[in-house]
UniProtKB/TrEMBL annotation:
One of its GO terms (molecular function) is catalytic activity. Residues 25-386 form the Amidase domain. This is Amidase. It comes from the Bacteria. InterPro entries: Amidase, Amidase_CS, Amidase_dom, AS_sf.
Amino acid sequence: MSTAAEVTAATNAVITVIDPPLPHAAEGPLAGVRVGLKDSIDTAGVRTTCGSAYFADRVPDVDAEVVSRLTAAGAQVVAKLNLSEFALGLTGSNSAAGPTRNPWDAARVPGGSSSGSAVAVAAGLVDLALGTDTGGSVRVPAAACGVTGLRPGVSVVPDAGTFPVSELVDTVGPIARDVPLVARAFAVLAGRPVREPEPAPPVRIGVPESWSHPLDPGVATVVAAAAQVFAEGGTELVPVRVPGMGSALDVLYTLVYADVADLHVERLAHPDLFQPETLTRVRVGEGLSDGHRAEALEARAEFQRALEEVFASVDVLLTPTLPVDVPAVATDEDVLALTRRLALLTAPWSLHAGPTLALPVGRHPVSGMPVGAQLTAPVGGEHALLDAGAWFQQRTTWHTATPPCSVG
């Protein structure tokens, strides 16, 4: 255990400390909660960099809508947090502010793109953080850092004042150590009455009966044990087939990279200012045509129709968050290949319009790193996920574990 300053320096999770906190209500459902914001979320009068040299001196005039909702609920916004540049990437390494480091093991990636958000929560620098999730950018770092993160349904939380990646699939989501705080934050962000979770196991959980790519054996063992926790509570585990799951990543990346290329077309006049990993992704998008995007949109619609049929027989789906152990920072693997590996099991639920909850469910039997699982519900199913997650966390302690590099 260390001081906040020591942990901040060791993890590089914070880009800007806000002291005193942003003006906030004295009372409310988030009164006293210390909040950090992914630095792609606007704060009036406070630099918002998107982790990029392009925005090194950018200071917005107006708070993002989600920031206004948090401060009106009493939250103390105390930090802007590191991220993969322009919220592109799942390793947390490509930021103009330097790479974020995993508090469990600095030699392993923290996940991204909301790397600083998950690290700051895990390390105790904040109680709650906001991230954004396009292809897994809340869920991947939550899994790699052993915390809880919610990808709400598309358009459930307002994104005004949040720098986009692909507005078709972007979401803003809360990250905290446990489900009850995630649930409170979600209600505030979505503009709904605050509702404490009503812990209850789902009646039927769908578990995919096959995978398009092999799972790491340690991950498979840990997530199977998590499924048994639900089974012992009376949940029926139902083998399911999710049509299109194997091709979901290609469909998602076609949509996302096409949008990214359009978004950054003017910045490509100065490619030297991009982080190399970011520029690689933008260049991929340049090669995609309107026809490619149209085909991907149709494939997305087909996937959603198939998923509706799956949800006719189960309440939620359970999958690992990452198909692999948390990878090392130093790797010779091509950046796009590594990103594809990390996104294999988060990408399908980014094509889905409904919510996904990422939970810590154990430790890898070889590395000791956190292992995460995802619960995915039909459109409008946030409450069902939060109830199920709260029930699971009443019976397990994985969410209470603190990493070696944390505030004492």
